[in-house]
Amino acid sequence: MAAQIFPDSFKRIERIRYLMDEHYDKITPKVMIDILSDHENYPYSICRHVDSSVPPQYQSSTLASFIMVPEDGVMYAAAGNPCSFQFAEYMI
């Protein structure tokens, strides 16, 4: 079902895995912000922007991004595209 509704999601997760593997053992919140802001394969990139060349029912945009670091009790959140919006830090 997901493959029919969001076919690009599988390519996006492949890209996320590739970038995380590239930074294996060196992943920081900054690295994750860079990964979430990636535009490779635009318009079907990790950081999604509306592509007005496709019908409205197939348009999609990143609404928010989250990075959680449980061992530090911190979460970072951006209310929109991670390439354009500042991440706020939340601590418990």
Overview of this protein structure:
There is one protein chain. It is built from three helices and three strands; from the N terminus they run αααβββ. Helix content is 28%, strand content 15%. The protein has a three-stranded antiparallel β-sheet, covered by helices on one side. The chain is globular, with a radius of gyration of 14 Å. With 92 residues, it is α+β, with helices and mostly antiparallel strands. The N and C termini lie far apart (37 Å). The model has no long low-confidence stretch (mean pLDDT 91). A hairpin with a 4-residue loop joins β1 and β2. The longest helix has 14 residues.
User: What is the N-to-C order of secondary-structure elements (H for helix, E for strand)?
Assistant: HHHEEE
The total strand number stands at 3
Q: The biggest beta sheet, please? A: 3 strands, antiparallel
Mean pLDDT: 91
Class by alpha and beta content: alpha+beta
Number of helices: 3
Share of β-strand residues: 15-25%
Roughly how many Å is the radius of gyration?
14 Å
**Outline type:** globular
Straight-line distance between termini: 37 Å
Strand order of the largest sheet: 1-2-3
Helix proportion: 25-40%
Sequence stretches where pLDDT stays below 50 over 5 or more residues: none
